[in-house]
Amino acid sequence: MSEPSTLVRAKNLVKEFSPRGGIFARRKGRGVRAVDGVSFEIQRGETLALVGESGCGKSTMGRLLMRLIEPTSGEVDFDGIELLKANDADFRTIRRRIQLIFQDPASAFNPRMTVGAIIAEPMRLAGFSRERCRERVKELLPLVGLADFHADRYPHEFSGGQRQRIGIARSLAVHPEFIICDEPVSALDVSIQAQVINLLTDLQKQFDLTYLFISHDLRVVRHIADRVAVMYLGRIVEIGDKRAIYSRPLHPYTQALIAAVPLPEPGRATSHTRLTGEIPSAQNIPSGCRFHPRCPYAMPICHERDPATVVTGDGRQVACHLVSQSLDIQPQALEPQRM
Ligand SMILES: Nc1ncnc2c1ncn2[C@@H]1O[C@H](COP(=O)(O)OP(=O)(O)O)[C@@H](O)[C@H]1O
Ligand SMILES: [Mg+2]
Predict the structure, then answer these.
(1) What is the distance between the alpha carbons of residues 302 and 289, in angstroms, rounded to a whole number?
(2) Which of 1, 25, 52, 151 makes an SS bond possible with 231, Cβ 3.0 to 4.6 Å?
(3) Ligand nearest to the CA of 64
(4) Which ligand is nearest to the CA of 56?
(5) Domain 6-18+31-271: which CATH number of 3.40.50.1370, 3.40.640.10, 3.40.50.300, 3.30.930.10
(6) Cα-based angle 96, 77, 7 (whole degrees, multiple of 5)
(7) What is the pTM of this model?
């Protein structure tokens, strides 16, 4: 183990999906770079929020971290073990230690299975006895705010919020340490969102969980996040402490995302950066800084050179020429995001 406090480390991760076949197969195939050279760490016990518009690569990032898909290049370490090089036994153990909660858990539930059987499924796959599964389901239901008798019901009998609770119970079944929450409340009403987020926060404290919390909505992650990573077209453009990001966003994209949601943040410098246009396709990443076509501050260099990631005084990392210039960071002090 290199650093005891780091649980997850992504190093220069790239995921390029090969061009789809079908009627477009004869067109000159260009792959989709969904994740394009991303490095970050997640500390044990923290919540790192991953935010950005739909299509920017958040889910792909989450799937890479648990090796549900293989990266084109780059590495993922979990607790000091390199996922891509782990032997079968290590990998099986890691798979148990990392769980995923996603937006619509019901789509993964077998409608003919009872809630008890759904929650117990990961345990059965891990070889737990029937008796242990039954006992664990009994423990889990009250932990997520459900009752004993719910174990015998079927998923269609539950509301969206309750189904997400079932999904959470299922993800906790095999005592994971790291949970990737991919838009877990995006399909729920605002009032229910808060309840599910509170539940996740309580469970985190109770079981020392580490979260990657993915959301396209900055309002949603505001309470749960310790740090925030802002993703744009396959890259992390800014990452840092939540308070710093919300009160003084540095990257024009982060500024625009924050300006778009009314957040009562004391002492927040008001930003008038507005986001115009749509996120370009990951098949056609703009030259230079990939955000330049939508950036109100774009300078000539932004059309030409991909900005390196710089570390600011408060420990934040930002990839923006304007920020580097205003901080007067010399080019030799810059570290390239992709090596
Ligand atoms: N299996 C796949 N095959 C081809 N392209 C994909 C696949 N999965 C995702 N993509 C593409 O990768 C990009 C990022 O997608 P995704 O990670 O789902 O973004 P997000 O979760 O931020 O909405 C999108 O352009 C999407 O169309
Ligand atoms: Mg997604």
Answers:
(1) 5
(2) 52
(3) 1
(4) 1
(5) 3.40.50.300
(6) 70
(7) 0.91
